[in-house]
Structure to design on (535 residues):
């Protein structure tokens, strides 16, 4: 399962001069972004700044108006999905009749095994994914009866079951309590050894502690390649003066005093 | 009273009840879980246009209903995927247009339409052997489709976006699921009629949901409840001499609400007991 040991570090996807318009209104302007192996990138920005649109373009759910999305890995040329996607847990119908195990198994329901039953391998990968996030013992529980943090772990397991090379997370800690958030980021720290991770959030202080690189998105992408967020960068992104408030006493805090 | 079972119409009615319960148990589980009850109502009512067409050109109205039901399922799916009309607006428009077309066709049809009422409200005692053959074929199509695509239907119903990213052809499968709903409605028309179909699509599955959160078990239980409701409703309508379709629906609804009511009472009593301890 540890594919990247066999491959030297390389790019996974590349966005070149990507523009996106909705009804003649630009949502994304000239985005250039490369995601490579071992990257742990945080994308922050205000609501309506195009974060979700950018993720959907990377995922191939929508086509950009202009520009190109290049998959650099050979596995994508074989038509295999190399991205695992995790969205907000509270967007789901909590009464939906499905167990934790069946949700995680959905990571194995791919276009390539249409009409087929799940194989022994599919089940092994799913069990391993649930074990990684610490949810294997809850496998027979109905998904809606778990806490928000636990549900989010199951959705990560579902993404891991696709055996991704890139894990994309959209506001993953929204409405998850702070203890569960810390555990959640620690899980990502562990996972970044095995795959590239891109996390999109409006909660800049929480993600800037953990990610290795940070980019600010508000129609345009301000990409600085490190996690130092300067007040100038934030003003550029949020289009208004922003005060940085550092909280917690994490030893790797990267927010500057001011 | 068991001598009535010797009559062919009664044997056909029991077979029809079984076939209807299988279709509504399987497809009703998706209708309830995926929350497409309103779409199902729309497809059912649009199929009335096909009943009218059947009378007008002299074919079996059930065949006409099948054509209209499948066409409206595809229509609702394609219009909402390709245009800016929202799904509920599209459903509302097709729903009324289907009924209007049916009314005009029946008005134009020569002569007199004596059994029109049975298509609207069902009459399980008028099911003929030819109807049963069609019902068996449609049940088989539903079972084969769900067996072949169970994991994709589950993934798509739970999270369409994730399923699409994983490469599952969600647009095609969504249309297929709507077509399965259309076929189920055709299976149910003779039993409870176009207007009452929605109750058999939702009540057995909703009751089954109270006992399990496993989709497969839910389908099995919903089928079982469907059989119980149609048979008990048929028997009640026979001894009370009232219309069978409406009796089946009222019985199912009464059982569901009685069950929900008693569980609510029981949990309240439990809460009170723990509070006083």
């Amino acid at each position: 399962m540890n594919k990247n040991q066999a491959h030297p570090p390389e790019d996974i996807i590349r966005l070149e001069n990507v523009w996106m318009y909705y009804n003649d209104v630009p949502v994304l302007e000239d985005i250039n972004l490369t995601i490579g192996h071992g990257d742990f990138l945080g994308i922050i920005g205000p609501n309506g700044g195009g974060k979700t649109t950018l993720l959907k373009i990377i995922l191939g759910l929508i086509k950009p108006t202009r520009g190109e999305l290049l998959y650099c890995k050979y596995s994508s040329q074989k038509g295999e999905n190399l991205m695992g996607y995790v969205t907000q847990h509270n967007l789901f119908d909590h009464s939906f009749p499905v167990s934790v195990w069946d949700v995680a198994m959905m990571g194995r329901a791919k276009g390539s095994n249409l009409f087929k039953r799940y194989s022994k391998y599919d089940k092994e990968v799913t069990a391993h994914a649930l074990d990684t996030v610490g949810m294997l013992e809850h496998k027979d529980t109905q998904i809606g009866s778990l806490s928000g943090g636990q549900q989010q772990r199951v959705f990560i397991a579902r993404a891991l079951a696709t055996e991704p090379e890139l894990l994309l997370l959209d506001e993953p800690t929204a409405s998850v309590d702070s203890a569960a958030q810390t555990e959640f980021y620690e899980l990502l720290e562990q996972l970044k050894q095995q795959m590239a991770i891109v996390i999109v959030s409006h909660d800049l202080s929480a993600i800037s502690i953990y990610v290795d690189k940070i980019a600010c998105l508000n129609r345009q992408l301000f990409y600085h390649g490190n996690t130092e967020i300067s007040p100038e960068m934030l003003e550029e992104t949020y289009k208004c003066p922003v005060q940085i408030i550092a909280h917690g006493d994490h030893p790797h805090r990267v927010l500057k005093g001011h | 009273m068991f001598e009535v079972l010797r009559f062919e119409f009664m044997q056909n009615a029991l077979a029809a009840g079984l076939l209807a319960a299988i279709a509504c148990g399987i497809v009703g589980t998706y209708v309830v879980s995926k929350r497409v009850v309103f779409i199902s109502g729309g497809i059912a009512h649009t199929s009335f246009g096909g009943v009218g067409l059947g009378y007008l050109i002299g074919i079996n109205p059930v065949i006409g209903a099948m054509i209209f039901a499948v066409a409206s399922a595809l229509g609702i799916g394609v219009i909402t995927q390709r245009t800016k009309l929202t799904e509920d607006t599209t459903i509302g428009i097709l729903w009324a247009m289907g009924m209007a077309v049916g009314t005009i066709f029946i008005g134009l049809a020569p002569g007199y339409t004596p059994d029109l009422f049975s298509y609207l409200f069902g009459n399980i005692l008028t099911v003929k052997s030819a109807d049963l053959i069609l019902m068996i074929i449609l049940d088989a199509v539903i079972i084969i489709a769900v067996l072949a695509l169970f994991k994709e239907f589950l993934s798509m119903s739970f999270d369409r976006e994730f399923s699409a990213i994983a490469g599952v052809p969600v647009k095609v499968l969504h249309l297929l699921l709507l077509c399965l709903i259309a076929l189920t409605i055709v299976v149910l028309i003779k039993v409870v009629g176009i207007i009452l179909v929605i109750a058999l699509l939702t009540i057995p599955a909703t009751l089954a949901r109270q006992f399990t959160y496993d989709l497969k078990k839910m389908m099995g239980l919903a089928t079982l409840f469907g059989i119980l409701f149609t048979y008990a409703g048929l028997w009640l309508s026979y001894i009370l001499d009232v219309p069978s379709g409406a009796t089946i629906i009222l019985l199912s609804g009464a059982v569901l609400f009685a069950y929900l009511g008693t569980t609510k009472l029981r949990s309240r009593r439990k809460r009170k007991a723990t509070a006083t301890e």
Observations:
- Chain A touches chain B through 31 residues (CB under 8 Å).
- Residues 1-82+166-172+194-258 of chain A form a domain with the Rossmann fold fold (CATH 3.40.50.300).
- Chain A has a mean pLDDT of 80.
- The radius of gyration of chain A is 18 Å.
